[in-house]
C-alpha cells in the first residue's frame, strides 16, 4: 500500500479508535496524560510500520497491544514504582507476549464504558469549565487544538495551554479514573453534556477539511448520550440532549448530494430523513418535557429541531413557534450564536427584514467576530430582500472565514449566483 494511502488509513483509524485507546489505557494507569502519551507512541509505531506491513485486520487491537507494550517498558524503567504498578507490569508483559487482549474484570462494572469514565475524569471540578471541555474533546473526540479553538471561538494557543495544564492538574490531584456517584456526578453532568454535544457537532458539521460530515464522531456522541441516559434516567436534560442528537442525525443522509456537496435544510429531500431516528428523538423529547422540572437548553433545542421533522414540507414548519422557542433558549443561555439562529427563525416567521434587524445588532458582538455563519446568515437575508450586491459580499466573506472546503464551495456558488443576477462577473461578486 502506498505511503500516502497508509497515512490516510492511520488517520482514519486514529479518529475512530483514539478515544477507546486512551480510555482503556487511562483505566490501567490512572493518568490521562500518560495514557495519551502511550497512545501517541502507538500511533507513531503505526505510521512507521504499516507502510511496509500493511494495515492489520484489527487496527484498534494492534494499537492497544503496542501501547501496552510501551507501558511494560515504562514500568520496567521505573524501578521505584510501588508494588501494585510492578504487578501491573507483569500482567501486561504476559498479555503482550501472546498478543491477545486480556479481559479486565474492572471493565465489567455497572458502567461498562471506559470512554464514559474518561469523560467524567476530564470533567472533574478541579479543572475550569473551558479546560474540561477542551481536554475531553482532545482525548475523546480526537480533535486537533485548531478544531477545538474554532468551536470555542478562541485562539489556538489558548486551547493548547488549557489542555497541557489540565492534564498536569489531573495528574497532580490524583483524580481517580471512575464515574462519580450522587451529588458529585450531578455537579459534573452539565459539563459532560456539553462535551458530548460538541463532539456530535464536530461530526455533524466539520470545522475544516474536505468532508462536510464525520459520521464516526456523531455515532460516538450518540452512543455516549444513550449510555448516559441509561445511567441517569431521571435527568431530563440528558434525554433532551439525546433527543436533539437523534433528530439532527435523522437528517444526515439528506444533508449532502452524491458528490458530498452540502444541501441546505430547506432544500433537503425529506423522504430521506431517517424515521427511526425521528421516532427515537421524539420519544426522548417527550421524556425530557414530561417532568415537573423546567426544560433546560438541550430540551429546548430538541423542541426546535422537532419543529422541522414534524413538518412534511418547509412551508408547514411552525416558524412562529420556533422563534418563540429560540427566544426562550436565548434567555437560558445568553448566547450570541443562539440569537443568530433566532434571527433566521424571525426572518422565516415575520419576513427577512425582521431577521436582518437582529443580525445587524449582532455584528459588533466580539464572540461572533470571525464566525462564518454571521455573514452567511446576513447574506441569506439580504438576498431575500433583493439586495444582491450586499448579499454576494457577505457570502464571499463567509467563505473566507470557514475552513471546510465543501462549505467554501457552497458559499462561493451563492455569491456567484447573486453576482449573475446583477450581470457582474462571477469571479468578482463583491465588486
TrEMBL record:
InterPro entries: DUF6596, RNA_pol_sigma-70_dom, RNA_pol_sigma70_ECF_CS, RNA_pol_sigma70_r2, RNA_pol_sigma70_r4_t2, RNA_pol_sigma_r2, RNA_pol_sigma_r3/r4-like, WH-like_DNA-bd_sf. Residues 188-288 form the DUF6596 domain. The keyword Lipid metabolism does not apply. It comes from the Bacteria. It holds the Pfam family Sigma70_r2. The keyword Transcription regulation applies. Keywords: DNA-binding, Sigma factor, Transcription, Transcription regulation. Residues 119-170 form the RNA polymerase sigma factor 70 region 4 type domain. This is RNA polymerase sigma factor. It comes from Plantactinospora endophytica.
Amino acid at each position: 500500500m502506498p505511503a500516502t494511502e497508509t497515512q490516510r488509513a492511520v488517520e482514519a483509524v486514529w479518529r475512530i479508535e483514539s478515544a477507546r485507546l486512551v480510555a482503556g489505557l487511562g483505566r490501567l494507569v490512572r493518568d490521562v496524560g500518560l495514557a495519551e502519551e502511550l497512545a501517541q507512541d502507538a500511533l507513531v509505531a503505526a505510521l512507521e510500520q504499516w507502510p511496509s506491513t500493511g494495515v492489520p485486520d484489527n487496527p484498534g487491537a494492534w494499537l492497544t497491544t503496542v501501547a501496552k507494550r510501551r507501558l511494560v517498558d515504562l514500568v520496567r524503567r521505573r524501578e521505584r514504582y510501588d508494588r501494585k504498578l510492578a504487578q501491573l507490569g507483569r500482567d501486561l508483559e504476559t498479555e503482550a507476549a501472546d498478543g491477545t487482549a486480556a479481559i479486565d474484570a474492572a471493565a465489567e462494572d455497572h458502567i461498562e464504558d471506559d470512554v464514559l469514565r474518561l469523560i467524567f475524569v476530564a470533567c472533574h471540578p478541579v479543572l475550569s469549565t473551558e479546560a474540561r471541555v477542551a481536554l475531553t474533546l482532545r482525548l475523546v473526540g480526537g480533535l486537533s487544538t485548531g478544531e477545538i479553538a474554532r468551536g470555542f471561538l478562541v485562539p489556538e494557543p489558548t486551547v493548547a495551554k488549557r489542555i497541557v495544564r489540565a492534564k498536569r492538574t489531573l495528574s497532580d490531584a490524583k483524580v481517580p479514573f471512575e464515574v462519580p456517584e450522587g451529588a458529585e456526578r450531578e455537579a459534573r453532568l452539565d459539563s459532560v453534556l456539553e462535551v458530548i454535544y460538541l463532539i456530535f457537532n464536530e461530526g455533524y458539521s466539520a470545522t475544516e477539511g474536505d468532508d462536510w460530515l464525520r459520521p464516526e464522531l456523531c455515532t460516538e456522541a450518540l452512543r455516549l448520550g444513550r449510555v448516559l441516559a441509561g445511567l441517569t434516567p431521571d435527568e431530563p436534560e440528558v434525554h433532551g440532549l439525546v433527543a436533539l442528537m437523534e433528530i439532527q442525525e435523522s437528517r444526515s443522509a439528506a444533508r449532502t448530494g452524491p458528490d458530498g456537496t452540502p444541501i441546505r435544510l430547506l432544500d433537503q429531500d425529506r423522504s430521506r430523513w431517517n424515521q427511526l431516528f425521528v421516532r427515537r428523538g421524539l420519544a426522548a423529547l417527550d421524556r425530557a418535557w414530561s417532568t415537573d422540572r423546567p426544560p433546560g437548553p438541550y430540551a429546548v433545542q430538541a423542541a426546535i429541531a422537532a419543529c422541522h421533522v414534524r413538518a412534511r414540507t418547509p412551508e408547514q414548519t411552525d416558524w412562529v413557534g420556533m422563534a418563540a422557542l429560540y427566544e426562550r433558549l436565548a434567555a437560558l443561555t445568553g448566547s450570541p450564536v443562539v440569537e443568530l439562529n433566532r434571527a433566521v427563525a424571525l426572518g422565516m416567521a415575520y419576513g427577512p427584514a425582521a431577521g436582518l434587524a437582529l443580525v445587524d445588532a449582532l455584528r459588533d458582538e466580539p464572540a461572533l467576530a470571525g464566525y462564518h455563519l454571521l455573514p452567511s446568515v446576513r447574506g441569506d437575508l439580504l438576498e431575500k430582500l433583493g439586495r444582491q450586491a450586499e448579499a454576494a459580499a457577505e457570502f464571499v466573506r463567509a467563505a473566507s472565514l470557514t475552513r471546510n472546503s465543501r462549505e467554501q464551495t457552497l458559499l462561493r456558488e451563492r455569491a456567484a449566483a447573486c453576482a449573475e443576477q446583477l450581470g457582474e462577473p462571477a469571479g468578482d461578486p463583491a465588486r
